[in-house]
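Explain the record.
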Amino acid sequence: MTIRPVLRARGLLLLLAASCDAPPERFEFRELHMGTEARLVLYAPSPDVAERAAAAGFRRIAELDSLLSDYRPDSELSRLSAQAGAGPRPIGDDLFHLLARATETARLTDGAFDITMGPVVLLWREARRSGALPDSAVLDSARALVDWRLVTLDSAARTATLGRPGMRLDPGGIAKGYAADEALAAMRAEGIERALVAFGGEIVAGAPPPGSVGWGIELPDGDSLELAHAALASSGDAEQFVEIGGTRYSHVVDPRTGAGLSGGAGATVMARDGLTADALATAASVVERGVAAGWLTDTAVVGAGARLIRHAPVRPRP
């Protein structure tokens, strides 16, 4: 008998095929990390092996949260933001990798993705709490601190420089994708190949379930696909938003305007890894479909197996 339970992942329905009568067994684990639920689904020969692999995956996510969170003042990322304008600062491998990939994505998307959106994102977080739009003058001042081109990385010295005092990094459009990649890698190091990570709007898949070509993913518009050794990310206003004056504003902020997205904008992107899918989905949600599709002709993106799956409003199911 085949069981197909359903998991939700920010506008995506995840159909996990599992066989009741054929080893290895299917296991599922859930924990809260980075402000949302992380779900690890895997096939293992025993509960002990499954629990050990899942613990390794969650440990890696927790480690990255301690390094990359902009909510935690003691994180490495927050400390770097606090030293903006003070010259080069040594950073660890994870933060260096994240910033390198973030600046690559910003260059590819002509700034539609910008990891230096922190000052503006803070204002929109306050708007979600208060129910009032950010003051236009304050928003303009915050936008003046946003420019990914002012992030300088030195690979030999392993340093990063934020070139203007007051700059602040916002990893929200890329960190969960990277954490999902790393959780999958941690489980693989424990000998688990058939595994999947569903984390916020990101899904990262390893080898498929036994007897399947992939993990079945149903999109909100009714289409479906099989995912294996790849990632899928969805960005939009499905879960994090605020309604002010009858308008729904997403937690995703357009770097070109400093405004939270409205009108139900959203995008879903597939790529070979979660970091790529996450960052490109964030960027694609703030531009027109033709612009987003144009990025996919870039050699680096083609090499990452990236493609735009959908560019339409993303709404939660009833």
In short: Residues 1-11, 16-22, 313-318 have pLDDT under 50 and may be disordered.
